[in-house]
Amino acid sequence: MDTIKDLRFAVLIDADNVPYSNVKEMFEEIAKYGTPTFKRIYADWTKPTVSGWKNVLLENAITPIQQYSYSSGKNSSDSAMIIDAMDILYSGKVDGFCIVSSDSDFTRLATRLREAGMKVIGIGEKKTLKPFITACDKFIYIEILKVRKTNVKEVQAENNQRSTNKISPPKAPPITKIDEELTKLLSATISDVADENGWAFLGELGSLILKKKPDFDSRNYGFEKMLPLIKSLGHFEVDERETGKKNIKHVYIKTKSL
User: Fold this and answer.
1) Which residue from 32, 46, 120, 136 has the fewest beta carbons nearer than 10 Å?
2) CA gap 67, 76 in Å, rounded
3) Do residues 151 and 169 touch, judged by C-beta distance below 8 A?
């Protein structure tokens, strides 16, 4: 995973198009990539449909932006969010944006921000259309965060019942089915970055896959990390090479010969 700790992010949330129940998990995920310096959420707060958000704004230090709906059937928050994004871009105070929405109308915004050299992370539901996903550097499904939250609660409940026993966290159910397309993606990408002996460094492999498929995440397939996912497929050889440093290995992947 491409994790950079020192990037400053503007987090812009479309309250009409994402659920409020996983806000804590969202910000924990964003923290893997950088520090949220702007945290704004957009909605017509006079509507009862967004009332659930109000309880989590203060505890997460999110600034609500009011945008009245002047006509039915239109999401007026979109324009306010886009204007703010451009203002923040020209302020020069951030290195990237996190757009939290399942609305593909933000595709052009994500594209424009990347053209300006910004790193763009999208967070939305599985129903998000592909154009918006592709416009981001990385796209994270909210369903992943829901699974993690559920698993933590299950493990805590089991630990309370049987505190003397070791309990392994339940395996996350897959959001995306493992299929031939995944194997082809991995094989082709290994070929792209492999050395003359056919071995590809796992870090380079992961980076290039994200460029090809921004919503790629091993958690989509029920695996916390990429290496266990690759091992489960049975089509690849794995070579874990010692580096001479304690507990640090360089992992290389190779497609098995037929």
Assistant:
1) 46
2) 6
3) yes
